[in-house]
Amino acid sequence: MPNIQRLNTADADFWPRLETLTAWEGVADETVTAVVRDILARVRTEGDAALLDYTHRFDRLDAACAADLEIPAERLRQALATIPAERRAALETAADRIRTYAERQKLASWTFTEADGSVLGQQVTPLDRVGLYVPGGKAAYPSSVLMNAIPAKVAGVPEVVMVAPTPGGALNDLVLAAAAVAGVDRVFTLGGAQAIAALAYGTATVPRVDKIVGPGNIYVAAAKRQVFGAVGIDMIAGPSEILVVCDGLTDPDWIAMDLFSQAEHDEDAQPILISPDPAFLERVAASIERLLPELERQDIVEASLCRRAALIQVRDLAEGGAGGQFHRPGTPGTIGGKTGRAVAVDPPRWRNLHGSLHRRSWVITAPAPTMCCQPRAPRAFPRRWGCTTSRSGPASFIARRPGRRRWAAPLRYWRAAKA
Fold first, then answer.
1. Whether the Cβ atoms of residue 323 and residue 274 lie closer than 8 Å to each other
2. Which of 234, 283, 314, 359 could disulfide-link to 213, CB 3.0 to 4.6 Å?
3. What digits encode the pLDDT tens for the residues 162-193?
4. What's CA 329's distance to the chain center, in Å?
5. DSSP assignment of 62-119, as one string?
6. DSSP H or E stretch at residue 60
7. What letter would DSSP give residue 283?
8. 66 near 203, Cβ under 8 Å?
9. Whether pTM exceeds 0.85
10. What's the rounded Cα separation, in Å, for the pair 73 and 5?
11. 108-138 exposure pattern, b = at least 16 Cβ within 10 A, e = fewer
12. Which residues are paired to 313 by β-bridges?
């Protein structure tokens, strides 16, 4: 049984323990920052030569020249043609749904003329080129390809450049097929901080981009933090995390699997469960113990649960502003919630539970009538849905229902300038 931390808001040491558990600095230590700084500097000055060296050292991939790091478009089409028919159908269905949603997000230019003849407005133009980082070291994520590349294409971005590590030279056909479905223009077998450096600064082989999007490990997150300014980024994603707020009426196996869904990404991932029902927390712990040995990625999940997970008991769901973000008593900005409801809160001090979570996060209770709430954009779900929250963007959500997931991709690819 993994040794998961237990916290209780009634304890005198609750706040210090929570701050220690969720501190970004606990993961992104100075050693990582220094290593990333050196990698960025070397790629910026040495270009392709540094990329070849780092790819050989970290991914065990020997390439004769930098051009060998690019995967030809024909290889993407081949992957799409050879994957099982049901997987291709799943990719194409997901792509169609994401594209339909992104079309509704698309911004438009506008102008108006004032009485004195002055013409005011906003001109919206797509970025010239965006870079997409797709994790590939410990697992493959074709969903990251679709959810990042398709909105960019809908926005009108002319060129999407994808980088993904291929340890030992192993290519994942599902990821390559997703790139073909999403219309990715160029793909490079690059990972880690060196891939971020190549996209941010450009080399003779890898083109410089206007913005970098996509999740990665701690080195990728630290690299994105350091190149911000030289290039745009979507967010400092950091290690994956999930926050589940439950009133204790949901199947504990469901909640355990939701915690696993993020814990399996990385040993530094952070799964947290909040509930006012101590007996329910015990039932979830029992489910974790029973289901963990069945997981393919058991070692990674167990490491994440032991290092950074927490089961938190609150007095009631209103204590945490409906649970999603804790507030000390009297903190301005608190919005009280009721059991079975969820609200987005924006307090000045408790901006989030994790250093990489967004300032306006989802807070969701289940299984009573629930709402997935973005700032100024609530969305209601039926009673039978058990909802959890996962950080994937400033305006995004995942609503869980057995056998079905729904995604809403954030606005990442438009820039606007006053006319």
1. yes
2. 234
3. 999 999 999 999 999 999 999 999 999 999 99
4. 31
5. --SSGGGGEEPHHHHHHHHHHS-HHHHHHHHHHHHHHHHHHHHH----EEEE-TTS-E
6. none
7. H
8. yes
9. no
10. 47
11. eeeeeeeeeeeeeeeebebbebbbbbbbbbe
12. 8, 275
Give residue 24's pLDDT band: very low, low, confident or very high (50, 70, 90): low
- Which pair of structure tokens corresponds to residue 130? 């965006």
DSSP β-ladder status, 389-390 and 70-71: unpaired
| Cα–Cα distance, 205 to 48 (Å, whole number) | 7
Cβ distance 7 to 313 under 8 Å? yes
**How far apart, in whole angstroms, are the C-alpha atoms of residue 81 and residue 345?**
46
Residues belonging to the chain: 419
Instruction: Rounding to the nearest 10 degrees, give the CA dihedral for residues 132, 388, 322, 355.
Output: -30
Structure tokens at 359: 């300032």
3-state SS string over 157-197?
CCEEEEECCCHHHCCCHHHHHHHHHHCCCEEECCCHHHHHH
What gap in Å lies between CA 374 and CA 392, rounded to an integer?
Answer: 13
Once rounded to an integer, what is the mean pLDDT over residues 344-351? 33
Cα 3 from chain centre? 26
CA dihedral 87, 89, 91, 97 (to 10 degrees): -150
The alpha-carbon radius of gyration of the chain (Å, integer) is 22
Return the pLDDT at 263: 93
Q: At what angle do helices 173-182 and 142-155 cross, to 10 degrees?
A: 10
Query: DSSP readout, 209-252?
Result: -SEEE----HHHHHHHHHHBTTBEES----S-EEEEE--S-S-H
Cα–Cα distance for residue pair 393/166, rounded to 1 Å: 26
Q: What is the DSSP code (8-state) at residue 331?
A: -
CA quadruple 316, 318, 321, 323: dihedral positive or negative? Answer: positive
The tokens describing 317, both together, are: 């769901």
Q: Which amino acid is at 170?
A: A
pLDDT band, very low/low/confident/very high, at 105 (cuts 50, 70, 90) = very high
